[in-house]
Amino acid sequence: MSQTAIKVQNVGKNFGKVCAVQDLSFDVAANTCFGLLGPNGAGKTTMMKIIYGKCTLDNSNGSCVNVFGYNPVTDELAIKYLSGVVPQDDNLDDELNVVQNLRIYAKFYALSAKNTNERIKYLLDFLELTEKRKASIKHLSGGMKRRLIIARALLNNPKLLILDEPTTGLDPQVRHLIWDKLRQLKKQGTTILLTTHYMEEAFALCDAVLIMDRGREVIQGTPAELLERNIEKFVLELTGSHAISDIEEPVKTGIRVDRGQESTRLYSNDADRLKRLAAKLEGAHYFLRQTNLEDVFLKATGRELNEKQ
After folding, report:
1. Which of 55, 85, 144, 275 has a CA that sits 20 to 30 A from residue 79's CA?
2. pTM, 2 dp
3. Domains of the chain as residue ranges with CATH
């Protein structure tokens, strides 16, 4: 049976009148990747900060957090020592080069000079940054900066790697490179806690995900379970100048209709039925595909933006 790396029970956090997290509970098994998904303002980053002790939880309703046997309220330093954190924003020192950024950070973990040199050499190679070891931060691309921040988070060989939207704004090649490295880390025994807005990323990396909205859990499970339990198997996406009356028939035939301002999605477990419907929609641009985690996300959280966004 897998060891529980993180246990979160009935956690809440208010900032004045704003409820950032409300009655949230989940477990993260060791050596797995767990994803926190949700719209902006859902409380994902707040929950992450509670886990590694940067933000205190509201101690009520039996709230507790356990990270590899440590309580973030009383054992913040112990948790930070065994964790690596990749924040949303790049916070590298622009006045230093690549190696200097890593050397400075290694001092927080009291690594010896020998261990520091070995670790930096390994991580630059692992994240394909060796050729940039002497480069100024100002001369790095966005993808290189993100890889360097991940390298920095791995200096202490952490048991827990916390990544807050690690690939936002990166091109597909860099994103897939980072995914490959995270998969390797998981195989090596690192537990990964991830927030992301990319549903493809969550499906590719996460063993389990929790979708939250306005501080609360909406649904959680493995990506495959969420697809099986919460969404039809196929979707017909319509865009263009088709008439709404053209899609009134599906409502009577068991096809679920999700209308947006400029697009409409028709969901069904019967792909042939969607194909026949598409054939009747002259002049419409359409795309028939299998449903994915993004469809589950939209169904669970809705199309409308939260007020906090």
Report:
1. 144
2. 0.90
3. 4-227 (3.40.50.300), 232-290 (3.30.70)
